[in-house]
Amino acid sequence: TIILASIAFRIYYRNDGITLFFNSFCIMSDFAVGAWLAMLAINQNDFFIWLKKIPRAAVAFTYVILISCIIFYHPVFDSSVATILERLILGIGFGFVILDQVFGENRIFNLHKIPGIVWLGKRAYGFYVFHQAGILIAIKILTALHFIQSPFQFVVLMPLLAFAITIAMAALSYRFFEKYFLNWKGKFEV
To answer: To 10 degrees, the CA torsion angle through 126, 131, 136, 142?
Structure first.
């Protein structure tokens, strides 16, 4: 129901980029996909068992499709229908990555073995909350320094600076805000 409501909002606001990007109702399908996958994992139904056992070639193909959607984002999602379904498609794709990394029996690589990934993963909420601010701050800094004039500066330097700023904000948020609540939630776990 939530996914259908989100798609309905995206249909209604399909020509309003700001609403599509920032309105909670337009992006709530991401959370619904995550909740659905969590429900599958808890209930361990037949579909979940099937997802865990997807052959390695199918896992690799899914990663290739997702990476292609990211690299060729604008050509892939440059139609009315694609704009409406973009969040759902990417939500399912990234949900699959999480499912594969946590439960997959035929995964093609283990992200948790890459140094720093677990540390970053613990700060993922901060990334979600602060990534847009990190991007805007990076653009402001590079613009003030007159250092965002070439394609290299915009495509490589700006994302690297935005990533570093977002990491710093997410780390501070985790240390001084989120950790308190994460420790507190332990009192309520079953």
So the answer is: 100
CB-based contact 162:138 (threshold 8 Å): yes
Structure tokens at 174: 């985790």
pLDDT tens digits for 53-62?
Answer: 999 999 999 9
Q: Is 31 exposed, middle or buried (0-12, 13-18, 19+ CB in 10 A)?
A: middle
**83 and 14 in contact (C-beta within 8 Å)?**
yes
Q: How far is CA 190 from CA 44, 89, 176, 186, in A?
A: 19, 33, 26, 9
Q: Give CA–CA dist 70/39, Å, rounded.
A: 27
pTM attached to this predicted model: 0.76
Helices and strands per DSSP (H, E), number in the chain? 12, 0
59, 103 Cβ separation under 8 angstroms:
no
**CA 35 to centroid of chain Cα atoms:** 14
Contact present, 56 and 108 (Cβ < 8 Å): yes
H/E segment holding residue 182: helix 179-185
Token digits for 52?
A: 């865990």
Three-class SS state of 69: helix
